[in-house]
């Protein structure tokens, strides 16, 4: 049965496929940009140089300083550099950290961002920005930060080690899972979520077996695109709230934390999210999607517990407090005790 819904399409343009980085100069031309600042993390500097060289004198600088959670000081440096260079747009190449830096510039200066994602995190498909100062990460939605064009070249993901490929893939699947039971879910977003999650779970074993398998890499990037679009279109629930608190408060690594926490939250929410369970069961060809994700992560040697990620057992109470401090949507009612017990299970690495 289809309930009433509201669906607002985001104005996204996607250029997809192995080798599509060659299309980037045409994308920049189509946008009328002539003074582009290329933003990346330290590890993407070679790709950034390649991009700058393909743009010729339309690239006016490279800032290889993107780091996790967009520190306000880094954002301020990027804004100052874009201003001093007279930049009229940014190309952000890398994972969520690089794209987050591009969003910070867009938020401040209104410059268009062309995103070239190299992980599966999905930030390129969302109007959500994040900025961290004094250890506190603020996030918000602003249509100006949504990249105007996204070039998905799966060849750029080949350099991701197997471990990051798996955890980044699970990060994307988490967007799909929570999009399926979101308060603002809609039929078209649910189709994207189920297809995105399906494509990723079927691709990840191939990616791990052979990181340069372009068929598997392309299927994984395709899934990441769809899951990112779901993240951009819906409101996330308990899982993202938990991961945000664990990353923001304790500095736990983003993709790995998503991977550990997801099966626990899905198992908890499943009895209150029957349509999501049906969609995921069909997508994964299983009767128990939470157990399926747990077993898949285990078979791909992903981290299995928050303890393994360096969280101290004593921190559970602080995170539980943070997660219930402000209300948010979740299909199943949440109390502090429930959050603490989910965290204990995730800390131990035991799926009940
Ligand atoms: P990341 O961008 O920090 O990348 C993780 C590490 O992998 C970095 O060291 C990076 O240099 C490296 N890396 C990236 N691509 C690589 C490649 N192809 N080969 C080898 N190494 C590579 O991590 P992420 O998981 O992509 O993004 C996480 C960040 O993005 C977090 O800060 C998160 O909050 C944010 N995020 C934001 C949104 C949003 O909508 N605003 C969505 C998802 C994630």
TrEMBL record:
Residues of the Alcohol dehydrogenase iron-type/glycerol dehydrogenase GldA domain: 11-154
Protein's UniProt keywords contain GTP-binding: no
GO molecular-function terms, A-Z: alcohol dehydrogenase (NAD+) activity; maleylacetate reductase activity; metal ion binding
Domain of life from the UniProt record: Bacteria
Signal sequence segment: none
Coiled coil regions, renumbered to chain: none
Domain Fe-containing alcohol dehydrogenase-like C-terminal: start-end pairs: 166-347
CDD domains for this protein: MAR
Keywords noted in UniProt: NAD, Oxidoreductase
Family: Belongs to the iron-containing alcohol dehydrogenase family.
Name of this chain's protein: Maleylacetate reductase
Native source species: Paractinoplanes toevensis
Lineage of the organism: Bacteria, Bacillati, Actinomycetota, Actinomycetes, Micromonosporales
């Amino acid at each position: 049965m289809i309930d009433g819904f509201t669906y607002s399409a985001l104005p996204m343009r996607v250029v997809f496929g192995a080798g599509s980085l060659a299309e980037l100069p045409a994308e920049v031309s189509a946008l009328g940009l002539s003074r582009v600042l290329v933003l990346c993390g330290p590890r993407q500097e070679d790709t950034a140089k390649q991009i700058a060289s393909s743009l010729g004198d339309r690239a006016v600088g490279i800032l290889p300083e993107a780091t996790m959670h967009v520190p306000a000081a880094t954002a301020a440096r990027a804004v100052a550099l874009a201003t001093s260079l007279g930049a009229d747009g940014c190309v952000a190449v890398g994972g969520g950290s690089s794209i987050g830096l591009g969003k910070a510039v867009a938020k401040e200066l209104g410059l268009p961002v062309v995103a070239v994602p190299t992980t599966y995190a999905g930030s390129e498909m969302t109007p959500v920005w994040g900025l961290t100062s004094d250890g506190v990460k603020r996030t918000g939605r602003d249509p100006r930060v949504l990249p105007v064009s996204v070039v998905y070249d799966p060849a750029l993901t080949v350099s991701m080690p197997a471990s990051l490929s798996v955890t980044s893939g699970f990060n994307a699947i988490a967007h799909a899972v929570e999009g399926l039971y979101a308060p603002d879910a809609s039929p078209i977003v649910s189709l994207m979520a189920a297809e995105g999650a399906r494509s990723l779970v079927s691709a990840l074993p191939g990616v791990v077996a052979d990181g340069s398998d372009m068929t598997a890499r392309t299927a994984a990037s395709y899934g990441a695109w769809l899951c990112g679009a779901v993240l951009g279109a819906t409101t996330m629930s308990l899982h993202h709230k938990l991961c945000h608190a664990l990353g923001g408060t304790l500095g736990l690594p983003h993709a790995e934390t998503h991977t550990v926490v997801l099966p626990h939250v899905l198992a908890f929410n499943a009895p209150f999210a029957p349509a999501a369970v049906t969609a995921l069961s069909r997508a994964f060809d299983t009767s128990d999607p939470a157990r399926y994700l747990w077993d898949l992560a285990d078979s791909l040697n992903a981290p299995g517990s928050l303890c393994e990620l360096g969280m101290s057992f004593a921190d559970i109470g602080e995170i539980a407090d943070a997660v219930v401090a402000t209300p948010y949507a979740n299909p199943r009612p949440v109390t502090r005790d429930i959050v603490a017990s989910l965290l204990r299970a995730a800390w131990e690495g035991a799926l009940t």
